[in-house]
Design goal:
Number of domains: 1
Structural class: mainly alpha
CATH topology: Amino acid/polyamine transporter I
Mean pLDDT: 82
CATH superfamily: Amino acid/polyamine transporter I
Shape: globular
Strand content: under 5%
Strand order of the largest sheet: 1-2-3
């Protein structure tokens, strides 16, 4: 049997995959949700991504996030349909493998792995950026005794710590990520709620007035807003390790998209309102919650939120390494990469070799650019843009795969057809926003970097020896 997923019924087919040496049933539904939430790292978007989206969307930032949320929920519903029928550490790759020709499933696997690795590089750079912001809040008498530490040092330490945790215990990793993100999101929500209370609970019309927002800018902002959501599907990579995966994983995927989306829309609305008459605009603010917390009379929350964001960026790096390593594990079992990466740690039941390699691959772009003196916030933006290419590719393919899968089993209803079509078209339109209008350098070169990566991956697929059997 050359496919690891076996059909068990004649109706809606429920399928399972081997554990591939991973610890089966180790994660509770809440810990499974934590994987998706931590990869999204919702607390980091209001501080790092919102200023970038505001540059494009301006007063329409909340609308941009609302549209992005709707697109991600559409994709999440497509993924959840597959996740109710099969569980595997291969995530979206396995979903497409049973429905589409091998080349499409291979592209989805390589695209997803690329997306997780570049997101890890982005969040690692965000971690470094907030290390400096947190150090800058220390009293002058303390700062004067701290020598300047190069960014490469913090990037190295962050990578080593994330790799060590990912290698050792996925359950400890999930709990750690859940606690960190919960505290950070709660503090940000408190500041936003206080801000809305101060301004009064009424509709802020400039954010919805056609005369004050530019829809072209909103459209461009949607593309960048999607980066705030990417990774919401990463709970699917825990198929072998989640408890009751056919129920907990689809719920985690849809809930993470919805919860993060509501949080992003509310925060983008509140931040746009809070910065309207400020001496510094939102896009020029390096630590927006310093200003916002002071505005609501709780300045002490600003530095605390900064610390939470710093740790949250580390947690997101960890979550991406966990997700990428499990995708790579299954890719290795299916001959898409070296068979040496099929090994799991006997002591910890984690994909040790894949985890370490993933951590190194995430570190390289962040570390090299840091050595060249590129600001960490720029590295975050560049790596995040590259990551979106990979996620949009995987999301679009899985939407098409759902329609083909249901059609093949005579279960394609008009509602499901509309869902899959809308999700696929949404991803296609979002991808097109990266090509036209032509962005400035270096962003204009990123599509070619991504296409070059896929070309190399497909060449490997053609030349690499095929596995004789899929291990159980």
């Amino acid at each position: 049997m050359d496919d690891p997923i076996a059909a068990l019924s004649d109706g809606p087919k429920t399928a399972f995959s081997p554990s591939y040496g991973l610890r089966e049933g180790a994660l509770s539904p809440l810990e499974t949700l934590a994987q998706s939430v931590s990869t999204i790292a919702p607390s980091t978007s209001p501080t790092l991504t919102f200023p970038l989206v505001f540059v494009l969307a301006g007063q329409g930032m909340a609308i941009a996030y609302l549209i992005a949320m709707l697109l991600m929920v559409l994709v999440g519903l497509c993924i959840a349909d597959f996740a109710r029928e099969s569980s595997s550490p291969g995530s979206l790759y396995v979903y497409t493998r049973r429905s589409l020709p091998p080349v499409f499933s291979a592209v989805s696997a390589w695209a997803l792995f690329f997306a997780y690795v570049t997101t890890a590089a982005a969040t690692l750079s965000g971690f470094v950026a907030y290390v400096y912001i947190c150090l800058g809040t220390l009293p002058d008498r303390i700062q004067s005794h701290i020598p300047h530490i190069p960014a490469i040092v913090f990037a190295t330490l962050g990578t080593i710590a994330a790799a060590a945790i990912a290698y050792r215990d996925v359950k400890v990793s999930a709990r750690l990520m859940l606690y960190i993100e919960g505290i950070s999101v709660s503090l940000i929500a408190i500041v936003v709620a206080m801000l809305l209370w101060k301004h009064g609970f009424h509709l802020d019309r400039p954010q919805f007035d056609v005369h004050t927002i530019h829809f072209r800018g909103v459209g461009l902002g949607v593309m960048l807003a999607i980066f705030s959501f990417v990774g919401f599907e990463s709970a699917t990579t825990l198929g072998a390790e989640a408890r009751n995966p056919l129920h907990s994983i689809p719920r985690a995927v849809v809930r993470s998209a919805l919860l993060a989306g509501v949080f992003f829309v509310a925060c983008s609305y509140g931040e746009t309102l809070g910065f309207r008459n400020s001496p510094v605009t939102l896009d020029a603010s390096l630590a927006p919650f310093h200003f916002l917390s002071a505005q609501v009379g709780a300045p002490i929350l600003g530095p605390i939120i900064d610390i939470g964001v710093m740790v949250s960026q580390f947690a997101a790096t960890l979550a991406c390494i966990i997700a990428a390593s499990r995708v790579m594990l299954l890719m290795a079992h299916h001959g898409l990469t070296s068979s040496r990466l099929t090994q799991t740690s006997a002591a910890h039941d984690t994909p040790g070799a894949a985890s370490l390699l993933t951590a190194v691959l995430a570190f390289l772009p962040a570390g090299i650019l840091a050595l060249r003196g590129i600001p960490s916030t720029d590295i975050l933006g560049w790596m995040g843009t590259l990551a979106v290419y990979g996620f949009l590719t995987a999301y679009g393919i899985v939407a098409v795969a759902l329609a083909v899968h249901l059609k093949r089993e005579s279960r394609l209803t008009p509602a499901k057809a509309v869902l899959a079509t809308a999700a696929a078209l949404g991803m296609l339109l979002a991808m097109a926003g990266n090509f036209y209008p032509v962005p400035p350098a270096p962003l204009r070169y990123f599509p070619f970097i991504y296409l070059g990566y896929l070309a190399i991956a497909l060449l490997w697929l053609k030349l690499a020896p095929k596995p004789t059997a899929t291990p159980a």
